[in-house]
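Figure S4 source data
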Amino acid sequence: MPVHGGTPHAVPPGARARHRRRDPVHGGLRHPGAERGRGQHPTGHADRSKAGPRADPGRRTAAGTRHKNPQNADKLAAALRDTTTRLNKAIDAWTKGGEPDPEELPEDVELLALYQQRLYRYTARHPGLASKAFARLPAKLRSQAEDNTEALRELFALTRPIEPSKVFKVRDPRPAGELLGYFKKAERRFGVEWEVLAAVMFAETKFGRVRSDSHAGAQGPMQFMPATWKAYGLGGDVQDPHDAVMGAANYLKATGAPRDYRRALHAYNPSQAYVDAILLHARQIKRDPRAYYAYYAWQVFVLTTEGERRLTGP
């Protein structure tokens, strides 16, 4: 179940579909209440404590001020253009053309990525305004904006509101460079593209920020059902990011990747919307590796019966 959602409720091929999960984290998708993708594992406070959905204390931009989403196409296009340009420069400074500094996520990257995420969540919910704004963007950014918006729409379609009192466990993710190493190691061993593996962890738990099990019982940063993990987890720890990535690559290869990613991803999470979203995010990472670092800095949101709440981040 993706985090806004959800992850793969991986189940052995042949297992009944009702045992598979459909809630990604993209905010806590199909975990009743979250919008993530597979099974709502929205992350809460980054202090590793249990957290209930909390209201955002303002929409802070990189400048630290409160900010509302632009209400017209010209301003929305300008905000997307400016934010993405500044975010890419901040990521370049952080990674220095290679792997990032092992230290914490830089504040400018975190804040700019959060604002970018907010903009795309907004465009996903306002298609008419979004299409007008995208027409004003240069071709490369327009393509990125369209893919990100469509991916979020697909994940939002899997989302159901949860009660505000719902409690989630969250934590800080492992460093971006460390996770990248796991994805590439899995690609070398199983032939599954690292960008696809990264997109799955992104959708499922926002790179491990969500610690809670899904409503269906999926576990760990790649959201495995216990029976599937037993069959494909290679004897590892489902909660360990390295082991979870290896298990996911093993499962995806067994179900069709890299020959047929759509088939494999559908086995991982039997939702066409989920499959489309993963492939759209993976395509963005392939086109520009900086997208991986931007997605890494995106936060966990959940949809409650009283509105949207952010559970992680500044």
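Figure S5 source data
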Amino acid sequence: MSRSYSNVFRKKLASMVVDGHASTIRTAEKYNVPIKTLENWITAYRKDPKYYNRCDNYNYRYVQAHKYDQLNKKELIHECKVRDSHIEYLISLLLANGIHYTEGKDGQDKILDV
């Protein structure tokens, strides 16, 4: 399943490389984004810097807990993948706003505002 990134995050990274002259490779590594994906964002940003100003069309459905009782194993796995993708999207929003997220060694996630 592919990762989802907010337009705010895409614009920030593309701007860092194009306007801020940051290294494409280092930026991709720092924010854990595939290099080819970042290059595509940079290309779109160079063509039109306002490209990522549009709203995200991310449709997140609220699912009530009792729905899970009716799902089989395959459906539960799919639902977990969807949730993981949503979490990655939210993490990209945090990173775009300068809030760094890390997984703690003790299993506790930590948000570091930098």
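Residues 58-63 have pLDDT under 50 and may be disordered. The CA atoms of residues 61 and 75 lie 16 Å apart.
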